[in-house]
Amino acid sequence: MSAAPLFALDPDDLRARLADPDRLPRDRPTPEDDLDRVARTGGTVVPAAVLVPLVMRPEPTVLLTLRSARLKSHSGQVSFPGGRMEEGETPEEAALREAEEEVGLHRSLPELVGRLPSLLTGTGFAVTPVVALLRPPFALRPDPGEVEEPFEYPLARLLDPAAPERRRQEFRGRMREFWVWPHDRHYIWGATASMLVTLAAVLRGEGD
């Protein structure tokens, strides 16, 4: 007899939880930090979107990517598939397009279930995370110019409140606090780690 899954994803329940992004728990609950970030970028904010694919395996995972070392910005960092929105695009359209371009995930495969709260990065991107369910089997064809490696992170680890570590480090003359998620090969931090903190809170039902 096979073991019962540690966590089961219910699409309808997840849609209900994500129905109002403004009411969801978020990593930065106050706007002061975002205003400070806008000031540091000269007031320029670029709309962007990422796809947050929850892989519907017996033990569910979330799909992440290691960005190519060839990229000019954020090279070698862990991220979700995504990028800046083109004129006239919705966050959902941009996230699906970028995922197809970056990892070869056909845009018909992810089942969109909602959004997480938008997050403003220190580089001036206002990122909307678009959550989707992804059912195996599926094939990925990463673009080597953009993605070094796609990999999956267990939801069981994501749901452990003790898993992420809060760290402090000086960056460009300022002390910054940020999350780091444990992984045996990759350093998961920054905006991606913050989105994972919010995703974990939503999946645990915090704020219901």
Automatic annotation (TrEMBL):
Q: Which residues form the Nudix hydrolase domain?
A: 45-175
Q: Which cofactor does it need?
A: Mn(2+); Mg(2+)
Q: Which SUPFAM superfamilies match?
A: Nudix (SSF55811)
The record's keywords, sorted A to Z, are: Hydrolase, Magnesium, Manganese, Metal-binding
Which terms does the record give in the GO molecular function aspect? coenzyme A diphosphatase activity; magnesium ion binding; manganese ion binding
The family annotation for this protein states: Belongs to the Nudix hydrolase family. PCD1 subfamily.
Q: Any one Gene Ontology biological process term?
A: nucleoside diphosphate metabolic process
> Basic and acidic residues bias located where?
12-39
Question: Under which name does UniProt file this protein?
Answer: CoA pyrophosphatase
Pfam families named in the record = NUDIX
Against InterPro entries, the record matches this protein to:
CoAse, Nudix_hydrolase, NUDIX_hydrolase-like_dom_sf, NUDIX_hydrolase_CS, NUDIX_hydrolase_dom, NUDIX_hydrolase_NudL_CS
